[in-house]
Amino acid sequence: MSLILNSKKNSLIVHVGGDFDLVSANEFREKIDQSLEETLCQNLLLDLAKATFIDSSGLGVILGRFRKIKANDGQMIIYGPKPAIKKVFEVSGILSLMPVCNTEEEAWKILEKKTFKGA
Amino acid sequence: MDKIVNNKIKLEFLSKGENVALARITIAALVSQLELTLNDLEEIKVAVSEAVSNAIIHGYRNQPEGIVTLIGILAEETIYLEIIDQGIGISDIEKAMEPAYSTDPERTGLGFVFMQSFMDEVKVESKVNSGTKVSLTKKINTENKNRAVS
Asked: Residue B14 CA to chain centroid, in angstroms?
């Protein structure tokens, strides 16, 4: 798994590459949590365009971060998942919890809308 | 099994997280010998990942010294997989298979849900302090032309 993190407009943007399973789930959790603490970002945008695989271990840490972000009144948006990953999301029910869209641009639009509504 | 076995593999590995990828890549290579869709291939990979992760996390409680046995059989148009551990076993299989039942907040408890959604049959045999065997079956619809390999 590769993880690239940057922050913009109170949001942590995480670009995930490769397989998202038991081993990479731990790395993901540690790096995201540390980065959220350091940057004090409230929102999380998760770019899965280069993610090649996900199972329930990957999903677990995504949901774990979602709970954290929600507890801090932030928003979490996922964008770019491949069809196979989207299928896993559909079966899991995660789509009813957070927005999943295709591009970063769409993600920002959703975020702005949600932030505006919440304000 | 009455069917004609076209191919069979058996792989034993230590209960280390790194071997979850090894298991699913091995099975992906095996099942790609059949005419299956990319969708089927991805679903099988998820199911294998779940069963092997369960063996490591729950069967061996994340201790890396256990042995996980993975058996893959191709028989006509059906894929048979077995994931076996000699770990602590499951005392209440029904409860373990409940959706969203997990002992860890960072886990979804959806492992068996994925196995059941993505495979045609999921069978769990377990004995406390003796181990668990998960048997997964998937019948491949060969009529679909969207093949994973050419």
From this structure: 16
Collapsed DSSP state (helix, strand, coil) of residue B103: coil
- Shortest distance, CA B4 to any CA of chain A (angstroms): 31
A56 inside 8 A of chain B by CB = yes
Indicate the pLDDT class of residue A2, thresholds 50, 70 and 90: very high
Whether A87 sits inside 8 A of B110 (CB atoms) is no
Name the phi and psi angles at A44, rounded to 5.
Answer: -135, 120
Q: Domain tally for chain B?
A: 1
Interchain contact, A60 vs B106, CB within 8 Å: yes
Q: Which residue in the set B21, B43, B104 is minimally distant from A21, CB to CB?
A: B21
What does the mean pLDDT of chain A come to?
94
Confidence of residue B108 (pLDDT cuts 50, 70, 90): confident
**B20 interfacial to chain A (CB closer than 8 Å):** yes
**Residue B130 in domain:** yes
Residue B101 and residue A79 in contact, taking contact as beta carbons nearer than 8 Å = no
Confidence of residue B2 (pLDDT cuts 50, 70, 90): low
Helix, coil or strand: residue B133: strand
Q: Is B58 on the interface with A (CB under 8 A)?
A: no
What's the whole-model pTM score?
0.91
> CATH number, domain at B60?
3.30.565.10
CATH class (in words) of the domain with range A2-118:
alpha beta
